[in-house]
Amino acid sequence: MAEKRVDPATGEAVTLKELMAHYKGTYKKREVEDYWDGYCKVPKSKAKEKKPAKEQKPEPKAKAKAKAKAEAKPKAKAKPATKPAEDVEAKGIRTGKDGGASALAKLRTFSKCVLAEYVWLDADGVTRSKTMTMTARPLKVSDLKVWNYDGSSTGQAEGSNSEVLLKPRAIFNDPFRGYPHVMVLADAWNAWDDKPAKNNTRVACAETMDMYRSLDPWFGIEQEYTLMKPGKVGLKSAVPLGFNADGSEPAPQGPYYTGAGFNVAIGRPVADEHYKMCLEAGIKISGINAEVMPGQWEFQVGPCRGIEMGDHLIMSRYIMLRVTEKHDCICSFDPKPKEGDWNGAGCHTNFSVEPMRAAGGYDCIVKVCEAFGKATKDHIKEYGEDNDKRLTGKHETCDINTFKYGVANRGASIRIPRDAEKSGRGYMEDRRPGANCDPYRVTNIIMKTTGECLAAETIEAGAKMHTAFVFIKPHAVYDKVKELVKDKLVAEGMTILKEGQIKAEVIDKKKLIDTHYGAIAAKAVSMKPSQLTVQEKAQQEFEKQLLAEFGVAWSKVMEEGLVFNALDGAKKLGISSDELGKKYDTLKKGEDIIKFGGGFYCGKVDSIYVINGFYMNMRSKFTAPGTSIYYYEVEWPAEKMKWADFRGKMLGPTDPATAPTGSIRNEIYNKWAELGLKAQPDTGDNGVHASASPFEALAERSNWLRASITKDPFGKAVLASGVTMHMIKEWFDDPAVSFEGGKKSLFDLVEDLDAAECLKKLKAIAAEN
């Protein structure tokens, strides 16, 4: 039976497979695995050993007869406790991917179909919605189709080009129509250029959350709202629910906050129904209470992680608007719905990152508060329209032009809970956002300011230590070689964090070597020559150096179809991949083989030109049954040894024959026989591999050791430098990136750089890409 652990975000015990399904589309597989390992705890067993039953006294005969008679009566059949999904399947409703219009056309009846209410924000930040009939209940976001609507009617497009796309982002249960129907939170994109539509603020927020994911941001928003009496259709309502019919004002605020009773808790049926509806929908609503003005209430959503905060709050607002449709009232998110001596309506935002929640996190809270003070104007711009009418300094929270923070101070811009001060860790509450604020804009600026504030420390920490991945290649995995390599690493002042063996069967099954040589492998196997970019300079070198006596131009051999990748080249020549590899190994640089870029070689084999023809033969050395690699994960202070010296002096260059005396490759080259090797090392079989840069080391440890980018010091530093998680993972494949006017190999650009310089270069590359 699969192990179950408690997901702290939901409180439910789930298997890893169920956790993957729940967070698919929100987090990457690796992040969910890290979450499972680092945060999800094994549930405590509630099962207790049954105590032996106490000896019972014999019952009187009359009582015994009555009991026997009662037990003889037939019992009502209990209803089977089926899960909703099982119930749906029992009713013949499909789950999974929607079949679309073509599938609907083939159905005799739509009675088993599922309704999906798509919800999005218009140009003014107001929720809009429309319903679609689907052939199945979606289990994940990718099961849903991209839909469209008339953007000219929502202020997001012109009438002559009005189509706007709805891209699904989150699925909720539909509490109005009931199971199996769903509500879909979507964001809007222009159909004509596939760019975010007007007021699609989710995109920027998601990028920021992704950039600072290693900080693991948690949010909780206290959404205040005011129930209003209906006015003229289409016009803004001006009278809160509970205000006197004769136009006079009710008694001053005081008894209404968290109150109960007629004429005090005005609008409770709306608040309660909304609460229940949100729970049914699956929204992370954590509480409600009456507020300080008649008809004013608050509901709290959270804790939510990252982009999830905006999604859940937007959907909870939509549900509130739907609930008020049948209660003869209007919900206002206006920050100052009623002029006079009445509190306004806010959207107090509670926030923390992992360093705040850790021991000693109070100092981090104070540091971030100081950073917020320096960015006051930037924050206020994102905190809602007409917020100046609310932030006057007269009704809790200081005025809009003043910034201050304090412990348990509700009159401050930022309130730090008393418990946070006492325990030395916790969270902070930004009291400035207005009730009508866009939660994506609010959480985005909060996370951006926090991330930038803490980035300097994160980058500094990532630059202090060098961490590399070193492994002994299959041809050299012998005990004496292991001893030599380990002694050399330790002698150079390196700390071995981890070491071990990885067998060929695992390397082959998990395609570790293919990922390791990502760009090289792709060029040799999956990519066609026409898909590759050969720079003008490289083409000139090809014509100049490669078979120069024939004056061969790259464009000419391409036109004549004489260029192949390794896989197709072997087929063309009618030989095996291993045979092609052996032919390739005999080629000479500058004569019949040339390097176009990092991991990009072209060689003349018989009558054709082959890209990376060495790869298939190289791969087989790592996947041959009975072989393995032996690895070391090592670290050392960056100030003690430069990365260039680590590779050039300690490891030695690719050709072991030219390696400096005392280097690892030189030692193995000279002592190969006594170390147990079957042949003297050469350029291909040179004994040991080591990461070419701190970034390449991160990629290799992520691949071979499943290292977490968000927990790794250098990985966190890369993210803090402004490189997104998506970009990092793309760069692990060593793509050609735009930099300083040309396209260059990412790995080549950062090769041999120390951690600090590597981070600067990665930041600059990210800015250009």
Automatic annotation (TrEMBL):
Localization per record: Cytoplasm
Keyword vocabulary terms for this entry: ATP-binding, Cytoplasm, Ligase, Nucleotide-binding
What EC number(s) does its UniProt record assign? Answer: 6.3.1.2
GS beta-grasp domain residues are: 114-195
Give the matching InterPro entries.
Gln_synt_N, Gln_synt_N_sf, Gln_synth/guanido_kin_cat_dom, Gln_synth_cat_dom, Gln_synth_N_conserv_site, Glutamine_Synthetase, NDK-like_dom_sf
Gene3D superfamilies according to UniProt:
Glutamine synthetase, N-terminal domain, Glutamine synthetase/guanido kinase, catalytic domain, Nucleoside diphosphate kinase-like domain
PROSITE patterns in the record: GLNA_1, GS_BETA_GRASP, GS_CATALYTIC
Indicate, by first and last residue, each region the UniProt record lists as having compositional bias (Basic and acidic residues).
50-74
Cellular component per GO?
Answer: cytoplasm
User: Which SUPFAM superfamilies does the record cross-reference, listed alphabetically?
Assistant: Glutamine synthetase, N-terminal domain, Glutamine synthetase/guanido kinase, Nucleoside diphosphate kinase, NDK
By sequence similarity, the record places it as follows: Belongs to the glutamine synthetase family.
- This chain's protein is named glutamine synthetase
- Higher taxonomy: Eukaryota, Sar, Alveolata, Dinophyceae, Suessiales
